[in-house]
Every structure is written in C-alpha cells, then in structure tokens.
Design brief:
By secondary structure, the protein is an alpha+beta fold. It folds into two domains: 3-128, Alpha-Beta Plaits (2-Layer Sandwich); 130-172. The chain has six helices and five strands; from the N terminus they run H-E-H-E-H-E-H-E-E-H-H. It has a five-stranded antiparallel beta sheet with strand order 2-3-1-4-5.
Length: 172
C-alpha cells in the first residue's frame, strides 16, 4: 500500500473517530459470510458504523487525536473491527446477542470517556447508561416527591369533601 493511501485511510479513520463519541474494538474474523451480513444489518438498523481496519493505521489515527488512547493499544492484535456509535450501550447489546456463539469477541471499548478492556467488560457495557438516560433518571427522582405531595393533597381534598358531604346529608 502506498504511503498516500495509508495517509488517506488514517485521515478517514480520524474523521470518523471525531464524528462518533463511542467506539468498540471487536474481532469478527470467525464469523461466516451469512453471520457477518446479519451483523452488518443489525448495526445499520441501530445507527452503528462497522468498519474493518488495520491495527497499525488505527493506532496512528488514535495517536493523532488529542486524547490518550494508550490503554487500547494492547487490544489491537489480530483482526480488528471498529463499531462506531453515539449511544454507548447499543453495540454491547448487539454483541451480547452473538455472545452465545462466541463471536464477535469484544476486545476493548471507549464509552462515556472511559476505557473498557477485555471481553469480560461486555456485561458492564450492556448496563451502562448514557448521559441523557442519567439526566432523565435524576429529573424523575426530583419530580417524585413533588408528585407525591400533589397527589396527597388532591386525594385528601377529595376525601375531605366526601366526609363533609356525608355529614351534611346525615343531618337532614
């Protein structure tokens, strides 16, 4: 491969890394053609970009970015496929469906500005929540006491009204 071609590929990988906030390094080499096509279809449906890359070119692309991605370098051995996404746990859920077959294997992931290295991290990645999900949980927790007070006041008003109505009818 010519140096110009390598430079163009590195720039393309770097641009894709900047475009997406999360990425997974996986090994899909042991999948047959049918399973690979199925995986690609699932990725497409879930807005995940699946790309097969050369490890050396990926390493150079990661080195060209501002962040330090050195914890991922040891995982870049053998066949490597990148799964890019903007929702942190979506690729993990897809990988978990294939886990029973033993492939594709998770090598490492960069999700929510944290590194997850090794196939044993898949369960943690499946259950990780995105920033938007966490914000929604906090808002729900903050609204819960206010809703309880309002419902107690409303039900108390109805109960009080019912008691007064019963007492007024009884006297007649």
């Amino acid at each position: 491969m010519k140096k110009e071609d390598k430079t163009a590929i590195i720039e393309q990988i770097t641009a894709t890394l900047k475009e997406y906030s999360h990425f997974y390094l996986t090994d899909i080499s042991s999948l047959n053609a049918e399973k690979t096509s199925e995986l690609r279809r699932n990725c497409y449906k879930n807005d995940i970009k699946l790309v097969v890359v050369k490890n050396t070119l990926l390493k150079k692309a990661l080195e060209s970015l501002d962040s330090d991605f050195s914890p991922l370098y040891d995982s870049m051995k053998g066949s490597t496929s990148l799964m890019f996404c903007n929702t942190g746990n979506t690729p993990a859920k897809i990988l978990e469906t294939y886990k029973k077959q033993g492939v594709p294997a998770l090598k490492a992931a960069y999700v929510e500005e944290s590194f997850y290295v090794g196939a044993d991290q898949l369960d943690a990645l499946v259950h990780i929540k995105s920033k938007n999900e966490l914000i929604a949980d906090v808002v729900a927790l903050l609204q819960s006491p206010a809703k309880n007070v309002i419902s107690a006041l409303q039900s108390g008003g109805n109960t009080l009204h019912g008691v007064l109505k019963t007492l007024s009818e009884r006297e007649q």
